[in-house]
Amino acid sequence: MLYYLFEYLDKAFDIPGTGVFQYISFRAGMAVIFSLFITMISGRRIIRLLQKKQVGEVVRNLGLEGQMKKQGTPTMGGIIIIAAIVIPTLLFAKIDNIYIILMLVSTIWLGIIGFIDDYIKVFKKDKKGLHGKFKILGQITLGIIVGATLYFNDSVVIREKGTETLAFETTSEILVIDDAASPAATFSKESVKSTKTTIPFFKNNEFDYAVLLRFLGAGYTKWAFLIFIPIVILIITAVSNGANITDGLDGLATGTSAIIGVTLGVLAYVSGNTVFADYLNIMYIPMTGELVIFIAAFVGACIGFLWYNTYPAQVFMGDTGSLALGGIIAVFAIVIRKELLIPVLCGVFFIENLSVVMQVSWFKYTKRRFGEGRRIFKMAPLHHHYQLLGYHEAKIVQRFLIVGIILAVFSVITLKLR
Length: 418
Description:
The chain is mainly α. It has one domain. The strands form two sheets. Strands 1-2 form a two-stranded antiparallel sheet. The chain has a two-stranded antiparallel ribbon with strand order 3-4. Strand 3 and strand 4 form a beta hairpin. Helix 2 packs parallel to helix 9 and helix 4 runs antiparallel to helix 5. The relative contact order is 0.15.
């Protein structure tokens, strides 16, 4: 909203300094500052309110060291994270941007699902929380909304990379290096609707989901939504649940999400900029540069929340936060056509999720085969396995975050490693 105010002041009164709001870098910086301010200032008050309302964590005794000390720690702190994302985004982003609208809807949608789950656990004293089928239904519905919007909305287009030369001209559709109101380079090729995405590690690395329907014969591309929307649903469900599973140690899910967020910000910036997109030989996606403001608020919210969530945690985010964080990462990656990079970028979430699948599958198989269930890990998800091996919780988190940083750096260099 402030963007529109200062744009009006700049054009109507030419007030010195008001034009700075035209720059993505400035607005992203302000989004980080406001996000940190909201989490740091409001965080303690919200924690006290949660303590007063006796909104405490219900801990199942799994025999882990220090586990029962967490009993009663305030939960549902994801409210802090969501507020610190939504408010700065509304203040500094162009809220008529289709991608910003999608990200806000995704944040609030999954936040509500997580809130209902936490509410049932805390106030209804039901440790199981919201039934799994209702969580999945909510995630599927969001996937349909996101997938259908990206496929059918006329504003969602790409400009493919290629050998065409850059034309320098003044146009209302141009996105300059820092989004300033001045002429810049733009692809001479027209914007097109497409279900293409980026394949990491390969040169000329674009894959069109529509190709999977080639067996339908001529005109198969018009049915691309039949494959695109289910893929979107699968990614959103997998990543949001992966973040939820990872949220088992103090600061683990929050810190990992912050690292992923920084990386996504870099990818969004270069994908939404004609100059960098041409230099890196990747597809240019108009209007995605605005997502840098959203992801800046996201990173600020995660870092600010870590102030209270690092070991020993003063507050837990609960499903209110973890489902929202995972969903945001998934939708963001899909929007900038980098979703195939998720297994690398979100490697911590991926291995945590995989450890649970492996453990459950092996246990069921061996019980059927030998009459007695056997385990691959001492406990799943993976972070509990290391706890039972005797590693301190803080050390596990620190090492997982180091792995997350390595994966994030590797994800960025895939832009050139092709």
